[in-house]
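Propose amino acids for all 668 sites.
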């Protein structure tokens, strides 16, 4: 392909991908399947690698991330990002309205009402229609430059459409949609980790991740609500919002212009319950004077504008009776106590159960069966018990003793030092753990055997046909056909799905194994670093923690997992069945032979390149990347936060340690 052909092809692919992105994230319309979209995106990425001069800053390939940022630079805002005064009282809003009226000396005025989203305030700058900078609110005067992470937000335009100013700043609220948050917590729980507390804090932590590829997987979104700049020819907040919409920004359609404070109250009342239908959490309403000229006239206090105020809804809670406490056993053996409640209406839904998290929480609340308890939803997805109405407690109610044995198999529970959760250690014999392990194995993000489901897993287990994932690959037609509800076509579909799963990539297989604390992202990091299951199984603690994002707890869990003879036998059975237990290396483009016969270990975090980029560059120049340090190793490429043990071992063996810049010099 010539350069001219590549340039045309890249432009056409970019246009298509941008269109499909806009339809999906802005208009909730899927014009192509995920598979077709991924093919287009991967084709674009490959072309941009071959012709980097056409990898423009506004390319949709930047949505997937991959940039590693060691430190976020501090950026001063051109105009401060001030906070708003808050109130929970409609009387305070009437006082605010009187102050506005007095400050405008009798002029007529209008308000714009917007929902107050529970997210992270962002400032984004555009020059000549291209996103050039994304910055957090910080302390209001200055924030962190997180441009690479902001580019992964699919609804954030990388290039604007229509008529736009030469340079301007837009402000908005980044957030994690409820659905994404729920999925993320399901994955956390599936690998034996505590779920995240709320979507806002999770979104905040996501935006400060060093690896923008990891941020991309968090599927953040953003609503824009303000426009700043010179010579914008805009006279009101309403015009600013409409201008943002016309340029392609994601603006929440929930805003409304109100002619007086009574209409503001109507808006507040309308959204008090309706807001629960939205895809994100909200905690109130923002009321602003619409006219920019009148905003200037009203001015600011030292902390907030006099022309705007936030009305906050009270956190929704209700009192109800605690009927009992039940205990759930998860796939990893983690025990979760659940409060069984008299049904109560809360945040638009009937709540019958609420999380109690662990034994510490039960003790802290001093819960007793029969108590009147307070249940709150607020910013949480799952209702939780927040307190006890002690005035309603009667003398006969007794303190609770946390269970000592597994409610499913009777095995004595254990509690790992430093952890709040109790576990059932009977991994091979506890029914919920066995069935949970198989359910985890077949899920879409793992082996993707969609012809199986929880009911089928239950039938297979009860009929003693399947007690581990490897058993699935030994099922016959007769085994499945004799199950309740199965006929010829449904039986063949299950067998076909199991057979197709043998083509699933190693990264997904590793996640499917269900090693505690090894989620999807960690599995991808491990697979990319070690290349196959055998290298992971024999890896030392030191080698494991050298992998980015692998800490002491994860390394310990991996080693413990493969110390088990049952787990090692399971791997061998999967291998025999034909499951992918190594990465299928793609063909590498050769750029030079400058590193031929040279071996490298990469460790730490780098400023210019991601680790995968460095590996690919080494291979493109004839070198080989290995996972461990030995006397035969030629170079250790050392980044920031490299483990001291690795450096010490390299120095002891006389291995040459080089920096990122020194590596650059070798290939250039």
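Proposal:
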């Amino acid at each position: 392909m010539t350069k001219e052909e590549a340039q045309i092809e890249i432009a056409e692919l970019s246009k298509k991908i941008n269109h499909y992105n806009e339809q999906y994230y802005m208009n909730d319309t899927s014009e192509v399947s995920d598979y077709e979209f991924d093919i287009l995106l991967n084709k674009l990425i490959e072309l941009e690698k071959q012709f980097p001069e056409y990898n423009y800053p506004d390319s949709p390939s930047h949505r997937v991330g991959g940039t590693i940022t060691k430190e976020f630079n501090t950026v001063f805002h051109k105009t401060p990002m001030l906070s708003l005064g808050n109130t929970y009282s409609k009387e305070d809003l009437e006082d605010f309205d009187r102050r506005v009226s007095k400050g405008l000396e009798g002029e007529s005025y209008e308000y714009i009402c917007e929902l107050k989203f529970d997210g992270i305030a962002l400032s984004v700058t555009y020059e000549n229609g291209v996103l050039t900078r994304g910055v957090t609110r910080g302390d209001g005067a200055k924030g962190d430059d997180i441009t690479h992470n902001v580019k992964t937000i699919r609804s954030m335009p990388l290039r604007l459409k229509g008529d736009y100013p030469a340079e301007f700043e837009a402000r908005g609220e980044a957030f994690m949609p409820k659905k994404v948050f729920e999925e993320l917590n399901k994955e956390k729980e599936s690998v034996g980790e505590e779920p995240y507390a709320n979507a806002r804090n999770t979104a905040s932590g996501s935006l400060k991740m060093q690896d923008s590829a990891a941020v991309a997987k968090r599927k953040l979104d953003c609503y824009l609500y303000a426009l700043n700049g010179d010579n914008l020819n805009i006279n009101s907040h309403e015009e600013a919002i409409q201008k943002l919409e016309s340029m392609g920004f994601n603006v929440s359609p929930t805003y409304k212009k109100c002619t007086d404070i009574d209409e503001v109250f109507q808006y507040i009342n309308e959204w008090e319950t309706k807001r629960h239908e939205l895809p994100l959490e909200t905690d109130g309403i923002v009321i602003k004077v619409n006219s920019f000229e009148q905003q200037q006239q009203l001015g600011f206090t030292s902390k907030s504008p006099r022309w705007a105020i936030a009305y906050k809804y009270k956190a929704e809670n209700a009192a109800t009776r605690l009927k009992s406490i039940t205990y759930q056993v998860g796939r990893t053996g983690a025990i979760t106590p659940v409060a069984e409640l008299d049904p109560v209406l809360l945040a638009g839904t009937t709540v019958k159960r609420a999380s109690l998290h662990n034994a510490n929480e039960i003790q802290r609340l001093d819960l007793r069966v029969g108590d009147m308890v307070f249940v709150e939803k607020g910013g949480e997805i799952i209702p939780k018990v927040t307190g006890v109405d002690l005035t309603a407690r009667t003398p006969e109610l007794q303190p609770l003793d946390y269970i000592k044995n597994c409610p499913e198999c009777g095995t004595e529970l254990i509690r790992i030092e430093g952890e709040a959760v109790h576990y059932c250690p009977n991994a091979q014999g506890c029914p919920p753990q066995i069935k949970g392990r198989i359910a985890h194995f077949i899920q879409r993000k793992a082996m993707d055997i969609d012809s199986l489901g929880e009911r089928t897993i239950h039938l297979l287990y009860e009929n003693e046909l399947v007690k581990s994932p490897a058993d699935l690959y030994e099922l016959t037609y007769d085994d499945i056909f004799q199950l309740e509800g199965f006929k010829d076509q449904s039986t063949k579909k299950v067998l076909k799905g199991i057979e197709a799963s043998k083509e699933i990539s190693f990264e997904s297989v590793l996640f499917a194994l269900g090693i505690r604390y090894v989620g999807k992202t960690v599995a991808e990091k491990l697979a990319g670093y070690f290349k196959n299951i055998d290298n992971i199984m024999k890896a030392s603690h030191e080698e494991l923690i050298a992998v980015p994002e692998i800490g002491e707890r994860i390394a310990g869990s991996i080693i413990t997992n493969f110390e088990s003879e049952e787990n090692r036998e399971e791997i061998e059975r999967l291998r025999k069945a034909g499951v992918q237990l190594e990465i299928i290396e793609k063909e590498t483009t050769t750029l030079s032979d400058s590193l031929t016969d040279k071996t490298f270990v990469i460790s730490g975090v780098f400023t210019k390149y991601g680790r995968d980029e460095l590996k690919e560059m080494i291979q493109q120049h004839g070198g080989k990347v290995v996972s461990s340090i030995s006397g035969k190793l030629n170079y250790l490429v050392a980044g920031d936060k490299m483990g001291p043990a690795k450096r010490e071992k390299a120095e002891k063996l006389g291995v040459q340690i080089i920096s990122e810049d020194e590596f650059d010099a070798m290939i250039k």
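The radius of gyration is 28 Å. The domain at 599-667 is CATH 3.40.50.10190 (Rossmann fold).
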